[in-house]
Amino acid sequence: MYIIRGGETLYGKIRVQGSKNSSLPILAASILNGRKNTIRDVPKIKDIDVMTEILSYLGADIVRDNNLMVVDSGNVNCSDVPEHLMREMRSSIVLMGALLGRFGKAKVSYPGGCEIGPRPIDLHLKGLAQMGVEFSEGHGFIYAKTDKLRGADIHLDFPSVGATENIMLAGVLAQGTTIIRNVAKEPEIVDLQNFLNRMGAKIKGAGTDTIKVEGCKIDDLKQVEDYTIIPDRIAAGTYLVAAAITNGHIWLTNVIGEHVEPILAKLREMGCMINCSNNVIELYVDKPLKSLDSLRTLPYPGFPTDMQAPMMALLSTVEGTSILVETVFENRFKHAQELRRMGANISINGNTAIIKGVDKLTGAMVEAKDLRAGAALIIAALAAEGETHVEGVCHIERGYENIEDNLTALGAEIVKKY
Ligand code: UD1
């Protein structure tokens, strides 16, 4: 658990980690070329450990040195993702597109539900079926196979990040052109396109509503000599909110201002002072913050659902009533009940949370049930009176690299106890 003594004002400078949500599909993409790929700024977090273990199991040779990863997929010869590892990380479903591209088949276990809602994969399967993939299911597994992966014109019912990535990955080695419409426009999709194009793929349109992938042959693909993952916009947002709740003053390096703008816009509206220049963001608070009449989570460039829980913690301490609507995931309010244990005044009605700011939060024993809920509890604890024990460290370590060291460097009192 993390033990946090609240009340310290965060001050100082930290570097933001590389993006978790870019690294995962990019590591999956390194299966496609059967060559050696050198990737920098891969965060040292549990989700990447799991992806590394899966790739090794499939036959990849991996060298990991701090944030550098060299993935040689020349010896990958297996297309069955082991069930116990798939269960540890739902997003390993993104391997399906890459394995289908390379081998024409894949066996993955059904990802099932998770703490933030049912998270179905129907859009992944529908899109891949249009490309000639046949699916069968049994004993909790999905068997996917195709004699010939072919390009198709696919319209996603919803701009799903994972479905966009899976279909892009499958399109790289498909015969003909794949057009994907109503795609996710998240910066991580652009990062995946950039990585694949460095490999020799022909992809256009990431960051817009439509992506076009011209299929090629594996021999057309080359090794990726040196690729650097983009900064993690959600980790950046988390530290900014942590600073805001303590009336702090911080500088983040290794951030892309445009990627965090949807978060900055809301923090500015609350009264945070923010300056951005040359991949550095400065945030400080010099007056009481204001509540938000309306905060809706939306696909990028809307406000990210992954920042909803941290913002709920912050809004709990701000005078006035805030309304927060979660439109991306069902059932993503489990942190509200833990925040209530710390004295927050939050009521939930369907996908809407009504947060009435309280004078102070108080330390309590709380449990993180998912990654971003964990971040929210740490943030609340930083401002709470007394000591908070946050259980569920394993969820937090799925996505945050050295969170306790970073917060300690900024002046927080936080220790991890086993
Ligand atoms: C990714 C991110 C996650 C982020 C989310 C939304 C990674 C590893 N994870 O998750 O951090 O919170 O995007 O920004 O990148 N849906 C369907 N059918 C599908 C696929 C999705 O109904 O086939 C629904 C989901 O249940 C959810 C919504 O679409 O309600 C968004 O999901 P999606 O964009 O696919 O999120 P992930 O890729 O799982």
Q: Could you outline the blueprint of secondary structure elements for this entry?
A:
Blueprint lengths: L1 E4 L5 E5 L4 H10 L6 E5 L5 H13 L2 E5 L2 E5 L10 H6 L6 H9 L1 E5 L12 H9 L3 E5 L2 E5 L7 E3 L5 H12 L4 E5 L5 H12 L3 E3 L5 E5 L12 E2 L4 H13 L3 E5 L3 H14 L2 E5 L2 E5 L10 E2 L11 H8 L5 E5 L8 H8 L3 E5 L2 E5 L8 E3 L3 H13 L3 E5 L1 H5 L5 H7 L3 E4 L2
Parallel strand pairs: 2-14, 3-13, 9-10, 17-18, 21-22
Antiparallel strand pairs: 1-22, 1-23, 3-5, 4-5, 6-8, 7-8, 10-12, 11-12, 14-16, 15-16, 18-20, 19-20
Helix pairs in contact: 1-2, 1-7, 4-6, 5-6, 6-7, 8-9, 8-10, 8-12, 10-12, 11-12
The site of uridine-diphosphate-N-acetylglucosamine has 20 residues, from helix 1, helix 5 and helix 6.
- Helix percentage: 25-40%
What is the CA–CA distance across the termini?
Answer: 6 Å
What kind of sheet is the major sheet?
Answer: 4 strands, mixed
- Unreliable parts: none
Bound molecules: uridine-diphosphate-N-acetylglucosamine
User: Over the alpha carbons, how many angstroms does the gyration radius reach?
Assistant: 21 Å
Average pLDDT, rounded to a whole number, is 95
- Record field, number of beta strands: 23
**Major β-sheet strand ordering:** 21-22-1-23
The shape, in one word, is elongated
Structural class computed from helices and strand pairing: alpha+beta
